[in-house]
Amino acid sequence: MSQKKAVVLVSGGLDSTTVLAIARSQGYECYSMSFDYGQRHRSELLAAERTAKVLGSVDYKVIKLDLRSIGGSALTDESIAVPEEETGGIPITYVPARNTIFLSIALGWAEVLGCDDIFIGVNAVDFSGYPDCRPEYIAAYETMANLATRAGAEGNKLHIRTPLIKLTKAEIIQQGIALGVDYSLTVSCYQANDLGEACGKCDSCRLRKIGFVQAGVADPTRYRV
To answer: If residue 59 lies in a helix (H) or strand (E), which one and from where to where?
Structure first.
């Protein structure tokens, strides 16, 4: 009997790397996918490639997109500053429709590969308030995926797997450590430099720092200062 396959969305960050480790631990043959979408820095893509290789991905693809052409986010428009203090509401680091775009391309690859499962590291507890990280969104997307694909129409139910969605950042880190994840290989910062060194000030850095403290684990993040 052939091993079950999964497409795993990886960004090089803490959450998606943990998800890749979880998928592998559950017996999946993992096909990892990242996106070069015009984000501020490439160090996260280098981290994604590193972690995909270390965690035994069967294949790793980088899909090129140009979300700079529509802008609307501090991550795709360099004229918009990345906030370095906590803000209310949906932050300007939200990239319009990003998870919908990413999941749609992953869905296409899953059909080609004959995968029934797509893993994504969304989280609705310790996160930045993005609307496309909520359980309601994932449930709605899964329904759409099964209506919109040949696989779904032929009765091969597709699943969007979100193993981190109800976990705190500390719980995510603890689970990753238990699975042997080396978090020094990951880059979470919204404005990391070319060496992958984190600013230590943005929302992503703040949540990551707190997570390591609460998990009781030494923070391996490389900071600029």
So the answer is: strand 59-64
